[in-house]
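Worked problem 6 (solution included).
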Amino acid sequence: MEPTNPVRTVRLYSLSLNGDTDIDSLWRDVLSPEERNRADRFRRIEDRHSFTAAHALTRMALAHDLDLCPQSLTFAAAPGGKPVLSSISAKIGFSLSHTDRHVAVAVATGDVGVDIENIRRPRLDAALAKTAFGAAKTAALGPDPASDSWRLSFFATWTACEAVLKADGAGLAVPMERIDIDGAQAILNGRRWNLWQRPLLPDHYLALAWEVASEVEHTMLDHASFSHWCTEARIEDGRNR
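Solution. The predicted structure is:
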């Protein structure tokens, strides 16, 4: 199956779940039966909510760009475990990330990676940074691990590296130290990646990595606006049946 609406930009969606404890049934309806079963196996409601939101948003984002029904999409795992679309033959990449009631999904032509992190992680010091990044990247963070600027620099580096690793498909097998970051670009194993990074107030940081030159379009959603989007998709699907 070929997409009728090929992705011409990198579309980035971020969804805030702050203050909401209920999983909208509309979100669950978007998922496959296997995804709903996986969600139900989480013991903590917060984990169940984040999983449901991340996978529903992934389906909605892909369906929007490919002009397909979100429930019709099927997925497989590439070597290394990176999720890929198996229901179309076009080279459409996607990535998802979720943490602490925030979700991010990116869709692009070619490989793409996204990472979102809570910058208020309680334990954060130079030793952890050196283990993760190596001495050179840690030194570039600044002299004072207790400062807000050092913390922000840490997560700017962390999310950039995570996004590149996801886009590349290398995963945790490749040390972050091997990623060269230079402003809005990064290089890993000879592949050059574009970087886009933003703080999401008040306490999250978001990074995106992609290979094919494109503009970034960022859509920010909350519980109500995402539920409305799911409702519109259900109505449109009903019209097309």
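Discussion: The helical segments are 25-30, 33-40, 45-66, 126-133, 135-140, 148-168, 223-240.
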